[in-house]
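Re: that chain you flagged

S.,

Sorry for the slow reply, it's been a week of failed gels. I finally had a moment to sit down with the sequence you sent. For the record, here it is as I used it:
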Amino acid sequence: MTKAIFLDRDGTILKPIDTEGENFGYLTRPEQVELIPGAADAIAEARNKGYKTIIVTNQSAIARGWLSEEEFQMINGKMYEMLLKENPCAVIDDLFYSPYHKDGVIEKYSVEHPSRKPGTGMLLEARKKHDIDFSRSFLIGDAYSDMMCASNAGLKSILVLTGYGKMTQRKCLDEKLKIDFIAEDLSAAVKYITEYFD
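Prediction finished late last night. Pasting the C-alpha cells below so you have them in one place:
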C-alpha cells in the first residue's frame, strides 16, 4: 500500500479570487488561475518523499450552472501547466471532484452526494484506485469541510491558513473539531509531514 497527501485545490494550491465578485469566489475561467507561492515546490517535495499527491475538490459551481465540466478541466489544465513550469517535479498524481450540491440547478447534480466533502466518497474512490494506506496519509485544506472530511475518513488533518484557513481555524475551535496541525501554507504543511513522519 502507498501513502498519499490529499490536497484541496482552491485556497490550498490556488489563490482564491474575490468572494464579493462574480460567482461568489468560484474559479470559472483559466485566466483566474494563480498559484499560492511555494505550492509547486511543496508538491514536488511530497512526491520526492514517496507520497502520492491527489487533489480532492468540491465543485458545486458545476451543479449551480456557473461552470461546465469542460471549463473545470481547462482550469485544471492551466494549474498543471503552471505547477510544472515552476517545478518540473510538481506532478499531481490524480484529481477527484464532486460536482454535486442539493441547491444546484443542473438536475443530475442537484442532489446530496457522498462524494462531496465532508463526505468521504472521493477519498474512498482514490484509496481503491491507488491502494492507499489511510493510516500513513494526510489531508491538507483550508476549509471546515476538509477538516471534517479528514476526521470522517480517519486521516491526519492539516489546516493551511491560506484561503479560508483563518476562518476555519476559529470554526474548528468553536465546534471542538481536532486539527492535527496548523500550517501557514502548503509549504509549511509538507515540511511538517516530511520532518516528523519520514
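What I noticed first: The CA atoms of residues 120 and 149 lie 6 Å apart.

Talk soon,
D.
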